[in-house]
Design a protein that fits this description.
Blueprint lengths: L1 E5 L7 E2 L2 E2 L1 H17 L4 E5 L10 H17 L3 E4 L6 H4 L3 H5 L3 E4 L9 E5 L2 E8 L4 H8 L6 H17 L6 E7 L32 E5 L5 E4 L2 E3 L16 E7 L5 E7 L6 E6 L1 H6 L10 E6 L8 H8 L3 E6 L12 H5 L4 H13 L5 H23 L2
Parallel strand pairs: 1-4, 4-5, 5-6, 8-9, 9-10, 10-12, 15-16, 16-17
Antiparallel strand pairs: 1-13, 2-3, 7-8, 11-12, 13-14
Helix pairs in contact: 1-2, 5-6, 10-11
């Protein structure tokens, strides 16, 4: 069975104020064309279909168009909700839509109930594990600790129990939206840390033939059977080194996996350039970036006059301007943003306590801070994503 694995469409999202809807529509057309041209048997979409719980109308219309075109292609599609989606909203009409071959899996309680498709070699069971917010599903799954690993492990126990009751030789595919250990993050993914831990080990998914992951925006192979497709379009300059693609996966009669990357069309390449303004304007090596979307980091000790206007004369698609002056770290002029760069909310809070009180927080106080951050993040998720 040939699968096309994609995720993290983020319909409705902009890129540094650039409207990406046309590019997203271009991706949908590319997806449907790939389905037809490469004889795809099933499409899997591993969450974050939308960029937010209540997407703009234009994004909903594009999603509706995608559903119709996939249904017209006659190829079954399995989709799950991600941490940016409202599971309840995305799942509206799932029963009716399923009759057209588009299977929306947004209810955590249905983790162990697969979509079963067949080929010449028998059944393939597709298990959809939508984003599992620990604060929302812990009691439903009967786990004591509200952590990502615990709720995913409980969901996978249901998957393995169902699979064990099926005929011998039934192959299996799991769709999941999670941060799995070993994956590389980018700046455009929303933090899902709970209890100081964001990731889960790949071993949680043992026992199935292929795991189609969503959440991280870079295409990645964690094991031969566990892969991220990544987002089809860039959503932050931290993705400048990404090759945007989908996975074309051939699942053999014995469950063997062979995978090939299919590149996605992107409107422009990304470029991150760094240096003093005059050097950036004069460097002949940078000519290759003149048609790219550019993030420029200026290292001039003193902020130059009209930097954006001067940069856009040479790099007309400059979207982001960052100042990181060449100064010793102890100099008083070092920016607040620079001092905080790369630090977590927990670390910043602990540093604040140390600065105000003159002593670092102890283990008990660190746990109080951690619990407070977890509670705020969970409350935000409940407000945005819960039914």
């Amino acid at each position: 069975m040939r699968l096309l694995h994609t995720s993290d469409w983020h319909l409705g999202r902009a890129f540094h104020r650039v409207n990406m809807l046309d590019a997203q529509a271009g991706f949908v057309s590319h997806l449907v064309a790939t389905v037809r041209e490469r004889a795809v048997d099933a499409v899997v979409v591993s969450g974050d279909v939308y960029d937010r719980a209540v997407p703009p109308l234009a994004a909903v219309e594009l999603f509706d168009d995608a559903l119709h075109r996939l249904a017209d292609a006659g190829v079954p599609t399995v989709m799950i909700s991600g941490n940016h989606d409202s599971a309840r909203r995305l799942g509206v009409g799932a029963g009716l839509i399923g009759r057209a071959g588009i299977h929306l899996r947004t209810d955590p309680a249905a983790c162990g109930t697969p979509v079963v498709l067949a080929d010449a070699h028998g059944d393939v069971a597709f298990y959809g594990l939508p984003y599992l917010e620990p604060a929302l599903v812990r009691e439903r799954f009967g786990v004591e600790k509200a952590g990502h690993e615990q709720v995913l492990a409980a969901a996978m126990d249901r998957v393995r129990a169902d699979l064990a009751a099926r005929p011998a030789g039934t192959r299996s595919v799991v769709l999941a939206h999670a941060f799995v250990t070993g994956g590389e993050v980018s700046d455009s993914e929303r933090d899902i840390t709970v209890g100081g831990v964001a990731s889960v080990p790949a071993g949680v998914f043992d026992g199935v033939d292929y795991v189609a992951l969503g959440h991280l925006h870079g295409s990645q192979t964690l094991t031969a059977r566990v892969r991220y497709s990544g987002s089809p379009l860039p959503y932050s300059f931290s993705e400048a080194g990404h090759r945007k693609s989908m996975w074309l996966v051939d699942l053999g009669a014995d469950g063997a996996v062979a995978a090939e990357r299919v590149d996605c069309p992107v409107p422009r390449p990304l470029a991150r350039i760094r240096g003093r303004l005059e050097d950036l304007l004069a460097d002949a090596e940078l000519a290759r970036h003149q048609e790219a979307w550019v993030e420029a980091t200026l290292t001039d000790p003193v902020r130059p006059a009209e930097p954006m206007a001067r940069l856009t004369e040479r790099f007309p698609h400059t979207l982001s301007l960052v100042f990181d002056p060449d100064r010793a770290p102890e100099e008083p002029g070092v920016s607040y943003a620079r001092r905080l760069a790369g630090r977590s909310d927990q670390e910043i809070a602990e540093d604040f306590v140390t600065h105000v009180r003159g002593a670092a927080p102890d283990d008990r106080e660190r746990l109080v801070l951690q619990d407070a951050f977890d509670a705020v993040r969970a409350e935000t998720t409940v407000r945005e994503v819960a039914p």
